[in-house]
């Protein structure tokens, strides 16, 4: 006999450490495209998608078929011991489409944090330098180097230091909070004067759209300024596209919105439709810097995950998901902008393709309001809509629905979102 959500949760609290934070008090039983059912049979529309992992939805038939076919052949050899062609062909596909200047090469890993770690290793080996510059509000993973690069203390860094050295942070442009592109670039020059000379910096790493930081979009002027600084000083530019990649922003990669190119791109999440796979793609001469054995991992390029990734890339093209990302994102932004007129607590609506966010502030003080964002999230969840919060102040709701979500379900979810927004605003105003 199946157990209730409460019974399972009691077991979790006894068996699993509290450091693994869990948002929902219910447990998944099955899922299909944009719908998830819990163990008690309740249905939820999934606007979280495993934190941007399921751009092609839960259990896409093409992804399942690819995994099943590979399962009948082999599940593991360790690519570094006995390689297989599917990794080579996936690298070729990514090399052909990643916005990297000149010939590219790709290495596969398992998690986004692992991709970031290896991108830093490659940059340090290629340049012979140690310094790395990141941005405030950035999220680059929970490994030690990932945490060092991450520009948000709570909850990621508390109690885990000291972190690897030679990591520095710049302010990320944010019009809502009064930070301009010039502020960021001037801070970079000040960093070179006060903390580390440019000739000791291996790389600057940036998310083209910050994920945990609040879906803040990097202006083209910032990317152009960083590229110019990198070229002038022999620094590599790393684009962390772990969350932005594979159609979320309406392009296969968000860097395609800019004329400049990164030297290295990290990717993961929706690359393999829910299977654990990440990658680092970069200029061939940069990627070849580490000696044989310098890169790798026992599970890196798992054959089941690689098969899924091939299917994901096929689905993105065959189902027109890039165009659909733009259309759905515009529909959502349009609705949020319309609701903003009657909801003064909405301080900003922003997005790139279907990487959309709404930010909340106290209507009187205009200070960031995490309480209101949390209330909207809870009201939506009570109505069967799963949302995620983010942002440096925790006052942003981000939308990460599968790009394959049916139009009718998407429209119904917007109605639910509006109801949740009105309920949360009314309760906050009354309080």
Report the CATH superfamily of the largest domain.
Type I PLP-dependent aspartate aminotransferase-like (Major domain)
In total, the number of strands is 15
Q: What can be said about the biggest beta sheet?
A: 7 strands, mixed
User: What is the tally of helical segments?
Assistant: 13
In the residues, how many domains can be counted? 2
- Amino-to-carboxy terminus distance: 43 Å
The rough form would be described as globular
Secondary-structure element pattern, one letter each = HEEEHHHEHEHEHEHEEEHHHEEHEEEH
**CATH fold category name of the largest domain:** Aspartate Aminotransferase, domain 2
* The CATH C-level class name of the largest domain: Alpha Beta
Structural class: alpha/beta
The CATH architecture of the largest domain: 3-Layer(aba) Sandwich
